[in-house]
TrEMBL record:
Protein name per the record: ABC-2 type transport system ATP-binding protein
InterPro entries assigned: AAA+_ATPase, ABC_transporter-like_ATP-bd, P-loop_NTPase
Organism in which the protein naturally occurs: Glycomyces sambucus
Keywords, ordered alphabetically: ATP-binding, Nucleotide-binding
Listed CDD domains: ABC_DR_subfamily_A
SMART domains: AAA
Bilayer-crossing regions: none
Pfam family for this entry, one: ABC_tran
Length: 240
């Protein structure tokens, strides 16, 4: 019997107003993996992510996370969500921000500082969040999520606007988390990040046009890179 997936989505339908945003998508995300959710702006990535963390009203289908309905009370402290805009308090220091989120989930200051240091913000722990650079704010927001030691970590375009060095550091951190057993769902519209994932969900106009490993996706489309593979799939759809 195959292992139970960390996240299982079946026939998920979401409308915004009278416009369909997700059109019956299904997938299963294995525990201890990094899954990339890729697609152009407006394809439904953020809506899908919000459904996984239980903050999105859905029209139909099911979303199960760690064996519970998405957003269920037992998932608090087991699932963490890092939004596109850093969810931190500008008038608090880095360490105070993380300590606040730590206290909400019964963690102490020691755990908070460990989370701060794990994202490379130890030297900036006493700085006010409002005075941080964009990349530092992103890392502080990530520390606020990591302090609860989540089993599932959902990140909505966490590397947008960051320089290549910080992006590299964050992806190294994501890989280390997965190797430690955490399950990560990371959205992006940057195709060069796709090869860092164990599996890819390619979303276009509210539907998955691929759900495969990077290597198998390249092989199936006969292309040398994932951007070319994505374009190949789009052209196939338009031709049919």
């Amino acid at each position: 019997m195959p292992p139970t997936p960390a996240v299982a989505v079946t026939d998920l339908v979401v409308d915004r107003g009278k416009r369909p945003v997700l059109k019956g998508v299904s997938t299963a995300i294995a525990a201890g993996t990094v899954t990339g959710l890729l697609g152009p702006s407006g394809s439904g990535k953020t809506t899908f992510i919000r459904a996984v963390v239980g903050t999105q009203k859905v029209k139909g289908g099911t979303v199960t996370v760690l064996g519970e309905p998405a957003g269920a009370k037992p998932l608090r402290g087991r699932v963490a969500y890092v939004t596109q805009d850093a969810s931190i308090y500008r008038d608090l220091s880095v360490k105070a921000n993380v300590a606040y989120f730590a206290a909400l989930y019964g963690r102490g200051r020691r755990e908070a500082m460990r989370a701060v240091e794990s994202v490379g913000m130890g030297d900036h722990a006493d700085k006010l969040a409002g005075n941080l650079s964009g990349g530092q704010k992103t890392r502080t927001s990530l520390a606020c999520a990591l302090v609860i030691e989540p089993e599932v970590l959902v990140l909505d375009e966490p590397t947008v606007g960051l320089d290549p060095v910080i992006r590299e550091e964050l992806w190294d951190r994501f890989r280390a988390l997965a190797e430690g057993g955490a399950t990560l769902l990371v959205s992006s519209h940057v195709m060069d990040e796709a090869d860092r994932c164990d599996r890819l969900l390619l979303l276009r106009e509210g539907r998955f046009i691929a759900d495969d490993t990077p290597a198998d996706l390249r092989a199936a489309t006969g292309t040398a890179n994932l951007e070319a593979a994505f374009l190949h799939l789009i052209r196939e759809l338009e031709a049919n």
